[in-house]
Amino acid sequence: MPLAFSRTLIILGTTSLVSASVLADYPERSIELIVAYSAGGGTDVAARTLVPYLEKHLDGDITVINRPGAGGEVGFSALANAEPDGYTIGFINTPNVFTIPIERDTRYELSDLYPIANVIDDPAGISVHPESPFQSFEDLVEYAKAHPGEINYGTSGVGGDDHLTALALEQLAGIEMTHIPFPGAADVRQALMGGHIDLGIINVSEVASAAKAGQVRQLVQGGEERWEKASDVPTFKELGYDLTMGSARGLAAPAGVPEEIIEKISQAAQAALEEQEFRTAADEQSLPLSYLGPKEYQDMLEKQQARFQALWDESPWGQE
Asked: Could you read off the pLDDT of 2-15 as tens digits, one per residue?
């Protein structure tokens, strides 16, 4: 049974009453799209870049609502607990969407969400201020070994892919650093450019424009291979560390939304991603596109959830 169908069984009778004419009229009013991170971050940029094209293919209005806080928990909870009528959707981010309920009691579970379409797959990365003494990733590791706990790093919250990148690196390299969580990637980037933190551990797309402008310097990235827009930045694997990490970002709805509406939104998202105009806009925003439909997206989420649950069972993070 699909992970997001826990509410669907409860409302099965009402779902069967959804007529073709009702679906044809959907949406009849404005849709709210919740972003669980602050304005200007990678998820927000992706959402606002996608929305005009999604509106076009849905033939309706969409309003982006930022609900940052607690590493994404505030926004994910708002999405999961919204009315399952198709008029509240949102972006969800891996691994936060399932690591947060693994770590602590929350007002939502992954099963409270209905995956619609994955849109982005973005590698994690480590960046520094242009005037940082760390000219390379090797410089960073060498200094961290000699000065335990002295280097601080910013992330968008405990349990996110950037935080887990840092914890994995500490384990693999035998180093210790100090974590400073922020509400979102835009806040981390701002703190890094202002020289308030030593490292910004942020997805590569979220610092691509700042790196191009010389406002930050990227040291390493967490993809299996180098992202084409950061082709001069080595991967952890190239540098001898068996570490890959990133964030997939996609659309979801509260569980219980009629399957026909989910499919309609998913098809609109796919059509948007296939538009050359959107792909050009996404390229200008340095968005690494990766479409998955509801079933494929659900399968990916389930597999990653199992992977991180096993990691937590072996060695809980966030205990520093």
From this structure: 444 444 444 444 44
pTM above 0.85, yes or no: no
Write the DSSP assignment of 134-187 as a string of letters: --SHHHHHHHHHHSTTT-EEEESSTTSHHHHHHHHHHHHHT---EEEE-SSHHH
Task: Count CB neighbours of 264 within 10 A.
Answer: 19
The CATH number assigned to the domain with range 125-230 reads 3.40.190.10
Does an H or E element contain 79, and which?
A: helix 73-80
Question: 């797959």: which residue's tokens?
Answer: 121
pLDDT per residue as tens digits for the range 195-248: 999 999 999 988 998 999 999 999 999 988 898 889 999 999 999 998 888 999
The CATH topology of domain 12-121+247-314 is D-Maltodextrin-Binding Protein; domain 2 (3.40.190)
What does the domain layout of the chain look like in residue ranges?
12-121+247-314, 125-230
Q: What are phi and psi of 201, to 5 degrees?
A: -100, 100
Asked if the domains 12-121+247-314 and 125-230 are classified in one and the same CATH topology, the answer is yes
**Considering just the CA atoms, what is the radius of gyration of the chain in Å?**
20
